[in-house]
Design brief:
Elements (H helix, E strand, L loop, with lengths): L11 E2 L2 E2 L4 H4 L4 E6 L2 H6 L10 E6 L30 E4 L3 E4 L8 E5 L4 E4 L9 E3 L2 E8 L2 E6 L3 E3 L16
Antiparallel strand pairs: 1-2, 3-4, 5-8, 5-12, 6-7, 8-10, 9-10, 10-11
Length: 173
């Protein structure tokens, strides 16, 4: 979540500061320039004959950003993972399934994989194999060069359904 430039942002995880932005380790006092229209300066009895329309303002907080600061608080829950499959397992779809860009229905789907399509559970670099998201466990699968995420209930081990007969979903987590 980005609500400003981050110069004053601090990240705390389990009570420990985990970042040091420039302003967290250095004094960020300074000056900034503020535009003051000529008419406003005249109304405030400022000298109208100043050669520029920028006033230099001293700021003990440093450069003032023209956006509001914000705060996000969250509690990270431990991950929930399935062990129904493992990277390298050969699988097949037991229904038509949408191939998604990430684990969960909040990620876009970019193609539909037909029932009976064979694939291989791919290793995912973030160790998210079988991660629970949106009430399902999700697997990163390679379907002949099309990589993407599918829910566990749409897959079966290839050996579990010989001959391509898919009538029920595999159990287990």
């Amino acid at each position: 979540m980005a609500q400003d430039g981050g110069g004053s942002s601090t990240m705390v995880i389990n009570g420990v500061v985990v970042n040091n932005t420039f302003c967290n380790i250095n004094f960020c006092g300074g000056y900034y320039k503020r535009y003051i229209p000529l008419a406003m300066r005249e109304a405030n009895k400022q000298q109208a004959d100043q050669p520029h329309e920028l006033d230099v303002i001293s700021s003990p907080a440093g450069v003032e950003r023209p956006v509001a600061n914000g705060m996000l608080m969250l509690v990270a829950q431990p991950g929930a993972y399935s062990t129904a499959f493992a990277p390298g397992d050969q699988v097949s779809t037991i229904i038509n399934v949408e191939l998604r860009l990430g684990p969960g229905t909040n990620f876009a789907s970019y193609t539909t994989i037909p029932q009976g399509t064979q694939g291989v559970i791919a290793e995912q670099m973030n160790d998210l194999e079988g991660v629970q998201a949106k009430s399902n466990y999700w697997w990163y699968v390679n379907f002949g060069g099309n990589y993407g995420w599918v829910p566990q209930g749409s897959l079966a081990h290839l050996a579990e359904y010989p001959g391509g007969k898919f009538g029920s979903q595999p159990g287990g987590e």
